[in-house]
Write a structure and sequence with these properties.
There is one protein chain. By secondary structure, the chain is of the alpha/beta class. It is built from twelve helices and 15 strands. A hairpin with a 2-residue loop joins strand 13 and strand 14. Helix 3 runs parallel beside helix 4, helix 5 crosses helix 6 and helix 7 runs parallel beside helix 8. Bound molecules: iron/sulfur cluster (SF4). The site of iron/sulfur cluster has 12 residues, from loops. InterPro entries: Dihydropteroate_synth-like_sf, IspG_bac, IspG_bac-typ, IspG_C, IspG_TIM, NO2/SO3_Rdtase_4Fe4S_sf. GO terms for molecular function: 4 iron, 4 sulfur cluster binding; 4-hydroxy-3-methylbut-2-en-1-yl diphosphate synthase activity (ferredoxin); 4-hydroxy-3-methylbut-2-enyl-diphosphate synthase activity (flavodoxin); iron ion binding. Keywords: 4Fe-4S, Iron, Iron-sulfur, Isoprene biosynthesis, Metal-binding, Oxidoreductase. Belongs to the IspG family.
């Protein structure tokens, strides 16, 4: 289940309307939710449900599935019913799939008005169907598919153009008294994206879904998303996030959760405080840190483990952490909750840390 809202440490969260995507609350005082998107063919129900289960196990809160064909639309009722996560159907081009997804019991619909011809004429019918089923809608504006009218007006996908597009669509829904909206204005450039969300946050009180679109392969996409989300979440902007990576979706979820934990917006779990090592290092810090991380990844209790290469900052960090090692002269002093409990040779540092970590985890579970 979703953890309780941790204490805010980044300043005021922006005040937004709240809505529900299935059992997950979005906006208002609800925790910031992590989303991802399946890469399976949606119509392949078993493969899609399998990937959704993997995403759920990784800590994903909400999943989105593409719906490009009639077979995909036909699969939505089973997927929506059997998925362990709330399912949002992602619709481009074909408004009839919007209605199919609402009928299928999807927890939400994402529409991209720039990719649906004469979308504006369909808003009344979509608003009515969505309201009848209590289905929220995300207006997902994307730099790569900006409304032709706004592209002509602004020359390119500027922050102002993205925001104008989103607010125009939102106003059409509002005219039909439909307000269960979430908005995104994605761009591949974090600078443009940040400005767009800042403008959007000032102009409306709808919850916002953050994303740097086409952020790239894992390393670049992680950096771009972390920088952009950090800048916005620092200002209290953002209610759901999706890290877009050219990598398996489980990786997106891991990165998203790490970003929220780094900002103190989710309770921290395993945190490795390891030094970069330098000319003073007296043990192989990279190897130690990698071994300890690999062995303890996925631990379900908060635990700060310090892996430090020498006595300069070693004892200080090791003492402050739940568990740590300060190394010197081929040996490691093992600290548990601030006290040296053992001194072991370098070859046994990693296994000792892992052993102590598992012991602490066992204790924590008993409490
Ligand atoms: Fe260098 Fe020691 Fe600091 Fe690690 S703890 S970076 S080895 S001075």
């Amino acid at each position: 289940g979703m953890p309780a809202v941790p204490p805010q440490t980044l300043g005021e969260r922006r005040r937004t309307r709240a809505l529900r995507v299935g059992r997950v609350g979005v906006g208002g005082d609800f925790p910031i939710a992590v989303q991802s998107m399946t890469t399976t063919v949606t119509a392949d129900v078993n493969a899609t449900l399998q990937q959704i289960a993997e995403l759920a196990a990784a800590g994903c809160d909400i999943v989105r599935v593409a719906c490009p064909s009639p077979d995909d639309a036909d699969a939505l009722p089973v997927i929506a019913a059997k998925s362990s996560l709330p399912v949002i159907a992602d619709i481009h081009f074909q408004p009839k799939y919007v209605f199919a997804a609402i009928d299928a019991g999807c927890a939400g619909i994402r529409v991209n008005p720039g990719n649906i011809r004469k979308f504006d004429d369909q808003v009344a019918a979509i608003a009515r169907a969505a309201k009848d089923r209590g289905t929220p809608i995300r207006i997902g504006v994307n730099a790569g598919s900006l409304d032709a009218r706004l592209l002509a007006k602004h020359g390119r996908a500027t922050p102002e153009a993205l925001v104008e597009s989103a607010l125009w669509e939102a106003s059409l829904f509002a005219e039909h008294d439909f307000h269960d909206l979430k908005i995104s204005v994605k761009h591949h450039d974090p600078v443009v994206m940040i400005r767009a969300y800042e403008l959007l946050a000032e102009a409306c009180d709808y919850p916002l879904h953050l994303g740097v679109t086409e952020a790239g392969p894992a390393f670049q996409g992680t950096v771009k998303s972390a920088v952009a989300f950090g800048a916005l979440l620092r200002q209290g902007i953002g209610d759901t996030i999706r890290v877009s990576l050219s990598a398996p979706p489980v990786e997106e979820v891991k990165v998203g959760l790490h970003i929220l934990r780094a900002l103190g917006l989710r309770p921290r779990k395993l945190e490795i405080v390891s030094c970069p090592s330098c000319g003073r290092a007296q043990v192989d810090v990279y190897r130690l840190a990698a071994e300890v991380t690999a062995a303890l990844e996925g631990m379900d209790i908060p635990l700060r483990v310090a892996v430090m290469g020498c006595v300069v900052n070693g004892p200080g960090e090791a003492r402050e952490a739940d568990l740590g090692v300060a190394s010197g002269n081929g040996k490691g002093q093992i600290f548990v909750r601030g006290k040296v409990v053992r001194t072991v040779p370098e070859s046994r540092i990693a296994e000792t840390l892992i052993e102590e970590a598992l012991r602490l985890a066992g204790e924590a579970r008993e409490e």
